[in-house]
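Many introductory courses stop at the sequence. We go one step further.
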Amino acid sequence: MSKTFDIGLDALTGAAAQSDWSGHPAQASGKSFYIETFGCQMNAHDSEKVAGVLMERGYRSTENAAEASLILFNTCSIREKAAHKVFSRLGDWKFASKDKVIGVLGCVAQQEGEEIFERAPWVSLVCGSASYRKLPELIAEIEAGGRRVTGLDLDTDETFETEITRRDNPFRAYLTIIEGCDYACSYCVVPHTRGPERSRASDAILAEVRRLADAGYTEIQLLGQTVNSYRDPTPRGLNFTALLRAVAEVPGIKRVRFTTSHPNDFQREIVEAIDETPALCEHIHLPVQSGSTRILRAMRRTYTREEYLEKIAWIKAAKRPFSITSDVIVGFPGETEKDFEETLSLLDAAGYDGVFSFKYSPRPNTTAASMPDAISEEEKGRRLAILQERQREIQRARNEALVGSSFEVLVDSHNKARGQWAGRTTGNRTVNFTSPHENLLGEYLQVRVTRAGPNSLVGEHVL
């Protein structure tokens, strides 16, 4: 099956599926595969695509890597720690039996290329995300005895959905609408590993949404490295806001989410569309990275602190109560104590409901990697601890203010040991709750919040 490691690229990282909800019949075959996924929703959805391709070729999925004939690591390289973890996991299979095939997929594959074969000679497949449509040919080459097979072209025609995608959730589906990135943030590897920005045709997106709705999916999450930079390549010419409205109008779709937005392309009309359209979820993930305009310029983030906070003000002025989450990097080269204090003050000004925060780590093929004034690991750790504690207190206060309120949640899990169900509000808040009813997975129901902590809410089913 698949196992996902969330390294916190954004606030909405999909959890791993631990059971096959795809509806595909089990394949009567000796060929089996196991996927470990590192990263965000984009990688989680990429693993769904890869699994679909493999199942179509007669492979069966397994949760036990030891019994799999094909072991794949779908990787993320946006943080140095994540890339190191991948090579550590590869080391676990150094002495695997010769009937196993080990493969590296995703961003580390694209970034490191054939060097992976030198670092880990037992690896047989290295394939970037733009080449997943070519997986049948690549797998066939391996089955024919190939030992160093690669798919590393950043071909702009080889993007988006594969012909067969295994869905790892019965009511929530990911959908890629834009791939790659045209921004040039000085710390980021995405343009190198994912290629240039290219948008999927709106008619193909809407046709896919209709198929998903007909199959019983009620929540759609639109994905892209800069999802709100979407520009319809067809004569219809939909912009991102128009696409959001069109997806929300598809019969059977109750919730529409999207991630990740770039502040430069975040327009007031997005807030207005969410305000006016109940199916559009009132949650915005808007990465800021730093509260210092000086550091933002060094990061090449294309906006100032003041411009970013203006967009936050649009969200806060909405009729619906939005939740706002973000990403923050501490210890960027040259970041002074004053710059760091400006980031802390921005947390207070924005009042985020959640923040993914990281120590800066230099990445290959980025201009920041050669910048002077590197901050020590000890100092980066100190700043990160301070920032996370400040954000924890902000979240605690915001969540405690919700005690007594009722929310509609989509139930997505059950903890038998605690006797609790869990679900998410339209604002993407997690609520753990009790109910006398059974078989609630996939249900939409009202839950009243009775207690709150910094990271989640506790409540009871409103009967």
